[in-house]
Amino acid sequence: MVPMAETLIPTCARGIPSNFPNSRSSTAPRRRFPPPITSISGHSNPKTTFGFPTRSFGVQRRVLKAEAASSSSAVGEETKGDQESMSIDALHRFIDINLGKWNGSFYQFDAQGNLLQTVSTKLSASSYGEDELISLIQTLYIKQPPSSTSISGYDSEPEWMEYKIKETNMFTVDKYQQIGFFPREKAFSLRYQTAGMLETVLRAGVLGEDDIEEETPRNLKIPSHRPSVVCENCLYSLKKDMRARTFHIMDPKGVLEMLLIFLEERENEAPNITSYCSFKDISDKLSLLLGRWEGHSITKRSGVYGATVAEADTVALLEMDDKGQLIQDITSTTTGSSTTTNVHWTGTVSNNLVSFDGGFQLTLLPGGMYMGCPCDIGRSVAQSQPFHLEFCWMESPEKRQRLVRTYDMEGLAVSSTYFYEIKV
Predict the structure, then answer these.
(1) pLDDT of 52 higher than 90
(2) What is the mean pLDDT of the chain?
(3) Which is deepest, 66, 349, 398, 404, by most CB within 10 Å?
(4) 164 and 147 Cβ atoms separated by less than 8 Å
(5) What gap in Å lies between CA 269 and CA 12, rounded to an integer?
């Protein structure tokens, strides 16, 4: 059986080794980057940013050893210069699409697609520095629920907890986050070493001041402290200045633990995932997938220096057979060649979950979204098979975007693939 990860990317992009070069040659001169910033004077008074009261939230961060892919060979001076120029430009473009004040909502779903929690959030993003020393500074504000000790009959103004996200620069996006970035399409994938930020949103937004920091608080499901994979996939709206940032959280054994979504709009009021798209019930979610989808895919290797590995024209046909099974046929033809890959999948549908025979599952979500992952990543790694995580956003019945993050047999992110498809 063809591994699931190999069916979604063109043939020439498969099997990218974990040591595929995603940084400058080791012979290139080292650059010094500014030290990480834990507080920014320009944000010391959050009320000037969004105009609401905030409370500072101290977070203890563990310093973890990052896994960085090593360069396999030296490159020529001319090529090296081109790569440096392109990477700096890509970093600036990545920062540009993130800048501003984002109003949003944070949604937590279980592995079966059931909504568990909703939290109001705001994100302020700015930059400092120039050229290769530029950095992205982000501060997240989390709306807290009323305290259980509040005075009856007294309506206090909502409080927002402040969380400073670790800055993003040339060093972090390549070594720690292993970014997969598509500037023109405004899409990106990131790796997280822990789920600390996401746990903070849940604790602050659901428990608020009543959180006594229990390891497993009642009525709240928090991510494992040692997740095997935390992956962010972000797609920007084709209609307005809005985006969806989704997170796969896999538990220590490699099984899907939860799905998290930030749905955010720049400057305007926060969008609502249940009212944004008219496709709400199970039948609508599934019927939205069915039909013939034609489009184009772009695959890039991980890292800020990530060059395009391959492009392909794609056709996906999804239909229900007379036995109630979901049949999916995918054809991918690599651009500039006659290489074509055909893959046939058969799946069963149970509520919000589509389970394919090859060990891959899709979780159908509100707002024209679904998220896909292996049923058991640990098994894929044990069988020396690559695997992938997928996010799909259908803002309308006839158009969709998909972002696929591919991992090698050792569980290291090696590439990202962006799809734009139209139903015909």
Answers:
(1) no
(2) 81
(3) 404
(4) no
(5) 43
What are the phi and psi torsion angles at 200 (to 5°)? -60, -45
Degrees to nearest 5, angle at CA 374 with 373 and 377:
120
Mean pLDDT of 330-349: 93
Q: What percent of the chain has pLDDT over 90?
A: 57
Query: Does position 19 have pLDDT exceeding 70, yes or no?
Result: no
Query: If you ran DSSP here, which 8-state letter would residue 133 be given?
Result: G
Residue 382 three-state SS: helix
How many angstroms separate the CA atoms of 38 and 253, rounded?
A: 32
Q: How far apart are CA 126 and CA 112, in angstroms?
A: 36
Residue 340 CB partners (closer than 8 Å, separation 6+): 331, 332, 333, 334
For the record, the structure tokens of 165 come out as 């996200």
**pTM, 2 dp:** 0.81
Q: Where are the domains of the chain?
A: 81-145+156-423
DSSP 91: H
The CA–CA distances, whole Å, from 157 to 52, 145, 150, 239 equal: 9, 11, 11, 34
Judged against a pLDDT cut of 90, whether residue 167 lies above it is answered with: yes
Calpha distance 392→11 (Å, rounded): 22
Token pair 């984002």 is at which residue? 102
For residue 71, the tally of other CB atoms under 10 A from its CB is: 18
311 SS3 class: strand
Structure tokens at 288: 């939205």
Residue 216 has pLDDT above 50, yes or no: yes
CA distances from 5 to 128, 269, 328 (A): 38, 37, 15
**Length of the chain (residues):** 424
Question: Is 90 exceeded by the pLDDT of residue 400?
Answer: yes
What CATH number labels 81-145+156-423? 2.40.128.20
- Per-residue model confidence (pLDDT) at position 173: 86
What is the identity of the amino acid at 375? C
